[in-house]
Amino acid sequence: MEVDLWVWPAFIALIFVFLALDLLVFHREAHEIGIKEAFYWSIAWTILGVGFAGVIYAWHGSDAAGEYIAGYVIERALSVDNIFVFALIFGYFSVPAAYQHRVLAWGIIGAVVFRILFIAAGASLLETFHWMIYVFGAFLVFTGARMAFGGEVEVHPENNFVLKLMRRLIPVSSEYHGSNFFTRQAGVLMATPLLAVLVTIETTDIVFAVDSIPAVFAVTDDPFIVFTSNAFAILGMRVLYFLLAGAMHRFIYLKAGLAIVLVFVGLKMLTEEVYHMPIYLSLGVIFAVLIGAIGLSLIVTSKNPPPPPSQPGELDHAAAGH
Predict the structure, then answer these.
(1) Which stretches of the chain are DSSP H helices?
(2) Burial (Cβ within 10 Å: 0-12, 13-18, ≥19) of residue 299
(3) pLDDT in tens, the chain (322 residues)
């Protein structure tokens, strides 16, 4: 679909306005996000995200709106899998609950920037080299298979190259200083462990984006739809973390469902030249797989609830040189 050049900076500005309101108005004071607050905010962000499909529909019709919804659902579903990893990172660094929202909110700024770069690169590759559609498709099938048979996710921030580089450039204090990312000790500017957490979250999100962006390109080749669906999905991911992090161990079949979705959209990409699947049929398959995986998980775990996973690590892992 044709989008005027001014629409891109206008939409990006809108995203940053949302983030500024969140950080400076609604969550100015650091506090622990409870289930009730997370539930209401999750509804609000979902309404905004799904409601933007109405803007797309009025602007460019039902097919474009369907592509946006498909992209939004894929990205939102994949972000649920990210929530467990974020919980492991917070546990590794022993991040106080009151500061977790601040880390995720600031992390979105980097996520938006990197997604713009990745989407621009992906769109350019697909436009310049048509055969890249097969590369993306094969990558998604491989990623889905790896997700299905890859075992449990492990978090090793001590091996994070960017985190190691940060520790070499600036000393890191051994304890938190409120919700600050920097502090001064004996006149020396130091990073706090909270900045180390932000760096780890940010670099982890880059890895997630490498999987999720090609998946959205499988349902639409429009860069604006890819970006807007990604942006609204990650905006809602923060509060979804506080809503679901403590219950992620119950979604025992979610990873299998996500793997099926990735393989499905990968195969859709690979066979696009032979058969173009209508967007609403694709959307129906994605919905059916995800709802089935979530529903079956809740039914099975309601009878035999699995124990919640332990969160590894202590704060001293985050300290510089420790």
Answers:
(1) 7-21, 35-60, 62-92, 97-128, 132-149, 161-169, 193-217, 223-244, 254-270, 279-303
(2) exposed
(3) 778 889 999 999 999 998 888 888 887 888 888 888 889 999 999 999 999 999 999 998 999 999 999 999 999 888 877 787 888 899 889 999 899 988 998 888 888 888 889 999 999 998 898 899 999 999 999 999 988 887 666 667 778 888 888 888 899 888 898 889 999 988 889 999 999 999 999 988 888 888 789 999 999 989 999 999 999 998 888 888 888 877 777 888 988 999 999 999 999 999 988 888 999 999 999 999 999 999 999 999 887 766 665 544 444 444 434 3
